[in-house]
Design goal:
single chain; 604 residues; alpha/beta; 8-stranded mixed β-sheet; 6-stranded mixed β-sheet; 20 helices
Amino acid sequence: MNISLVKIITQHTVSYLKCPVAGRVPGPIRKPANTSQRSVSSSRRNWFNNMSPNTSATYFVGVDVGTGSARAALVATDGRVVEQAVEAIKTWTPEPHYYEQSSTDIWNAICKVVKLVTADVSEKQVKGIGFDATCSLVILGDSGAPLTVSKSGVEEQNIILWMDHRAEQETAEINAAKHPLLQFVGGQVSLEMEIPKLLWLKRHLPTTYKGIWRAFDLPDYLTWRATETDTRSLCSVVCKWNYDAAAHCWNEEYLRAADLEELTRDKCSALGSDVQPPGKPVGKGLSQRAASELGLEMGTVVSTSLIDAHAGALGMFGCRGYDKKETRANHDNIQGKMALIAGTSTCHMSITRNACFAQGIWGPYQDAIIPGYFLNEGGQSIAGHLLDHVLKTHESYAELKQELGEDKYIYQHLNKLLCELANQRGHSDVNFLTQDIHVWPDLHGNRSPVADPTLRGVLTGLDMTRGVESLAIKYLAFTQALAYGTRHIIDNLYEHKRSAFHTLLFCGGLAKNPLYVQCHADICNLPVLIPDEQEMVLVGAAALGAAASGHYDTLESASKAMGGTGQLLEPNQLTVELHNRKYSVFLKLLEHQRQYRDIMQGKI
């Protein structure tokens, strides 16, 4: 059996070790030392040519609000992350599928992390700030006070989180009307979008609904809170609110048909009457109040925002490979790149000059990330969260947790164990371990390309095996299934005449898992580009500030200047036939699940 050199991707370097299979696995398992966020940032700073903030350089701040935390980064003009900090934010789960947050809690967390990352530079060196956040619904009453979205009535809980699925009935009703505007969201709205959630509020919390002064997407709430200027980003409203980008207005007919006529009053002021593309300056910059809270200079340029995944795509579209196989033509052709922002969920972002209408894929969204391009957005509602579920519900988790500590070290152990199992069983690659085990991974419904929130997971090939080895095989099967889901999205785009992809790019927590990344390269049969800077969402947010401040002429030029370099990983051609067969089974699992449902409903 051939011994292959295996590239080990870490946050800072690429190293090598010998492994008896062709899959990539992590290095030695070590429990983490106790380090603060600032000390980790210092390590990153040293990695970048021992460069620390100096008194003459220009910097931008990127702020990213994810599902569970608020982060900030101090970013140099070439995209180097010099400092970063993170602060946890609260989430309430009052009942299954309900997820609520607080705009006050989030803003306080942002203020803390921005002060941390800018502590070593002067206020004048920070020329711009950009915000991104999850596409969550923020409700404000008179004078901008929080209005509850919770049945508990607690005013602090004024955000319906993106992954909240309470509005299932409202979503179905809106889709049943088949309004022409739905062609821009793959034929139907998702229950993760904002219009169904607003309809849910009208029906279930009428006092809150009647008291709405402003309904924001979370990224736009942050720019309003920073500037006291009510401007909406085209990214948020066109992607999650069914704004008509072609007509440059809210479609009042659509809102009335959705039983939301009240929101059309005063030129749809509650939804936002001033809509601007990403990367444009908002108002007069930071207000006096916000500047004081953030520790920055009043008037510092604030950019129109992006949704968090879209900020990651902006950062990655400009990334270039330093491998000779990544040609200059491929680097410049951003239409051939698919950016995967892979964390709790996964978003699949790609842009084209010409609109691509693909059933089950959101978009085409005009100018949603970079002006002059149409965005198509696929996604998986759970990805990292799914693998965590597989891990934590297995009988071996408690034992592994006690032995290895943090979950990331457990994943490293499982990756290494898979390598050993493949060797013991005479396989040339870890992927052959699941020849008879197949998974449909939509335990929380399918976002793309089926667009069916009622779908559930399927696992076939179970046996009586117990212990850590059974966990490793199950984990591999679910990781492969996520990659087959990506291939399903790509094939759907191809069926709707999209031009071919030449590269997949990854960022987010799952990008640090080499098994996940290599499975995508192999299953999609496409090279994968891993940026050297893993925090590309923060880089994308900072690029917004760089463009809005005028440091770069356009968002596209900011992306290319700040995208940095990355390593190109090639697909393993020895597994192509295996994955073609398993992908055929993957599609059969969808077909069969639908048949089972029809049988139980008495349709066949």
